[in-house]
Amino acid sequence: MEVRKIHPFYIGMNNIDIMKVLVSLNIPEAGIEMLKQEGLEVEVWRYEQPMSNQELVERCQNVQALISTGSNSIDKDFLHQCKHLEIISQFGAGYDNVDVHTARELGIHVGNAPDAMSDATADMAFILMLAASRKVCYLNRSISRGDWGVFKPRANLGLELKGKTLGVFGLGRIGIEMAKRCRGAYHMKVIYCSRTVKSGAEEELAAEKVSFDELLAQSDVISVHCALNEQTKGIFDANAFIKMKQTALFINTSRGPVHNQADLYQALVSGKIWGAGLDVTDPEPMKQDDPLFGLENVAITPHIGSATVEARDEMSRLVAMNIIQYFRGETIENLVN
Fold it and tell me: Which residues lie closer than 8 Å to 93 by C-beta, 6 or more apart?
């Protein structure tokens, strides 16, 4: 896709229209200030509640660029109603809410913010692994119920992780960071299932590439870090869980639909696997009466993998830079289509 060339000195001059950017959620100011300093006109949705898709369509009619989040579906219908858009910059590494193929057909550039949240999300996966292995969330709730009680030598037992096998499904930036933490803290063996060979990780972490079935059979902890697509949607279902060790932990910080949530619940209550840690669920947000909440061997957080000051500031900077590079006529470093 050819990048439009616009000389930066023309931007904001009185004899042409000022380039306009819509920011669909109240992101950190770092990126917003970058856009303004570049001479772009920026409209920011300052409310906590995301706008509806129809309202987003309406507000996009007078802008050339959109900073979007996973809160809205940038699907074929949306894109055809907003085919005048020149670039969509996704506030996040994942862009499964964007119909990238249709955007390309319409000549709309799509960028994202990869690597900004790699450390933060890997930390969350590591936290969830520990929390699930020691039943932290359930036992914390038990205190408020007055269930501390007396010492019981055989009660509330968890699992130790030292020397166990970590299986990474999708060994990208975040998966590698998770593997580093597990290898460094607990000397865990690392195996992975990925579309391509990760020679750097194999050399640094002694990681071994295996098939999906081998990953299921050999892993003591499976940590999911793949993109959501037709191949990965629902891949962790009843058939997958039954192939895992009964002592295995399932950790998902990627996208909720990668696992079948009903099948996961059944695998947990029937003892087919030992525990789970989820930062993503299906649906999101979860219902308050979801039966997963009541299980002692489950830790759940509300999709906050990237929720650090540092990660969100960097995400803001990267999505702004995508747009700035486009309007300068430069190569967009984080172009996904």
Answer: 112, 113, 114, 115, 116, 117, 173, 174
Task: Taking each helix axis as running N to C, give the angle between helix 173-186 and helix 118-133, from 0 to 180 degrees, rounded to the nearest 10.
Answer: 50
- Among 284, 310, 330, 333, the active-site one is 284
DSSP state letters, 273-330: SSEEEES--SSSSPPTT-GGGG-TTEEE--S-TT-SHHHHHHHHHHHHHHHHHHHHT-
Active-site residue among 134, 259, 303, 312?
A: 303
Q: What are the structural domains, with CATH classification, of the chain?
A: 8-115+310-328 (3.40.50.720), 118-300 (3.40.50.720)
Q: Which of 280, 283, 259, 221 is nearest to 94 (CA)?
A: 280
- Tens-digit pLDDT profile for the chain (337 aa)? 444 444 443 444 333 468 899 999 999 999 999 999 999 999 999 998 999 999 999 999 999 999 999 889 999 999 999 999 999 999 999 999 999 999 999 999 999 999 999 999 999 999 999 999 999 999 999 999 999 989 999 999 999 999 999 999 999 999 999 999 999 999 999 999 999 999 999 999 999 999 999 999 999 999 999 999 999 999 999 999 999 999 999 999 999 999 999 999 999 999 999 999 999 999 999 999 999 999 999 999 999 999 999 999 999 999 999 999 999 999 999 999 9
Please name the amino acid found at residue 273.
I
- Catalytic residue, candidates 225, 255, 259, 312: 255
- Cβ atoms within 10 Å, residue 13: 10
284 is catalytic: yes
**C-beta separation of 19 from 40 below 8 A:** yes
pTM (predicted TM-score): 0.91
User: What is the DSSP-derived secondary structure letter of residue 331?
Assistant: -
3-class state of residue 134 by DSSP: coil
Known catalytic residue: 86? Answer: no
Q: What end-to-end distance do the CA atoms of the chain give, in Å?
A: 8
For the four alpha carbons of 159, 165, 167 and 173, in that order, the dihedral sign comes to: positive
The amino acid at 186: Y
- Catalytic annotation on 41? no
